[in-house]
Design brief:
Blueprint: H1 4-12, E1 16-20, H2 27-42, E2 46-51, E3 67-69, E4 80-84, H3 95-99, E5 103-108, E6 119-122, H4 129-140, H5 146-159, H6 170-180, H7 186-194, H8 199-210, E7 213-215, E8 220-225, H9 227-233, H10 243-247, E9 255-263, E10 266-273, H11 278-283, E11 288-289, E12 293-299, H12 302-326
Parallel strand pairs: 1-2, 1-4, 2-3, 4-5, 5-6, 8-9
Antiparallel strand pairs: 7-8, 9-10, 10-12, 11-12
Length: about 325
């Protein structure tokens, strides 16, 4: 694993970059992409931003319209490709293009092994990859600006749940406070991320909550959303949504799971927890992520996948509790 200083030296030695985030980009992925993009541009570097999935609607951040939507991939040429907020293999339809790059940098905050890349920096204790990008720009000697501060603040805001999750440390709040000094509008940023949804989403949310199921005295909570549900309420299943945030709000829930059928027999699973290590649970199904927030993708019938994962989660809930007592 490289140090942040080594990442900075490597970036200084290159002049042409392509920045890529993970599939189905969320706020931290977008925030770290844009923050790094604007920072490298201030250094006089050439940069492109590329995504293999559509950008979520509803954000007013500068630079979002500069992200090239190339679901079929791209030719990296001689550019140095930088992957942020995930492993290179988790860039979705861009993975083949990313892995063919002659020079590859990977910056991430998810719990994982080193992975691929000429230069790799992974810091699982950081609240967000946007925090890492903030530190990297400081290491590079880049002065902050509003166009850098907005996406970095938004990325941190998203991955800390509005500064509500356990990864909200005093230092994270200090970084947030510093970013706010660049004429940010925290109320607007928070509303765009957490409290601004189309009517179709709210109707889908009501339907999903009506199907909420529980077991283990309410400690395990889940819901499944089918393609038919998405079609009924006119919501695009490929769009990043926050259904899982409402499911985890059940006061007795230790593990909350959302099953989403995004294509026929393609099931995306979101895991959330208060104390149990659901990152390990997700890895049982080929996924990964954080200790308290993770995900996986499985091919299969929605009802069958739901039953299998719920059964594993019931067993894991006890194991997880034992882990917490022994740690």
């Amino acid at each position: 694993m490289n140090t942040l200083g080594e990442v900075a030296v490597y970036l200084k030695s290159n002049d042409d970059f392509i920045i890529v985030g993970h599939e189905r980009p969320d706020h931290d992925s977008l925030g770290s992409m844009l923050g790094l993009y604007f920072g490298l541009r201030k250094m006089g570097k050439r940069c492109r931003l590329i995504s293999g999935d559509p950008i979520p609607a509803g954000l007013s951040w500068s630079g979002l319209d500069w992200i090239e939507y190339l679901p079929r991939g791209f030719d990296p040429g001689e550019s140095c490709v930088i992957v942020v907020d995930c492993e290179p293999e988790r860039t979705g339809s861009l993975a083949q293009s990313v892995l063919s790059a002659k020079r590859l940098v990977n910056i991430d905050h998810h719990e994982r092994e080193r992975g691929l890349g000429d230069v790799v920096y992974v810091a699982p204790k950081e609240a967000a990859t946007s925090v890492i990008i903030y530190r990297l720009l400081r290491e590079l000697g880049v002065s902050l600006s509003r166009e850098i501060a907005v996406p970095l603040y938004g990325g941190i805001l998203g991955d800390t749940g509005g500064f509500r999750y356990s990864n909200t440390t005093p230092e994270v709040l200090e970084i947030g406070a510093e970013l706010l000094r660049y004429d940010l509008e925290p109320d607007v940023l928070a509303r765009e991320i957490f409290a601004s949804h189309p009517l179709s989403f709210l109707r889908l949310l009501g339907h999903t909550l009506s199907k909420l199921e529980t077991t283990e005295d309410g400690r395990l909570v889940w819901a499944a959303v089918s393609l038919e549900d998405y079609e009924k309420f006119g919501w695009d299943p490929s769009q990043h949504d926050q259904l899982i945030s409402y499911i985890r709000a059940v006061d007795t829930a230790e593990i909350a799971i959302l099953f989403r059928e995004t294509e026929p027999n393609q099931i995306r699973i979101g895991f959330r927890a208060n104390n149990v290590d659901v990152g390990s649970l997700a890895r049982q199904f080929g996924g990964g992520g954080h200790r308290l927030a993770s995900g996986a993708s499985i091919t299969g019938d929605l009802d069958i996948v739901t039953a299998e994962v719920v059964e594993a989660a019931k067993e894991y809930l006890t194991v997880g509790e034992r882990y917490e007592r022994d740690s």
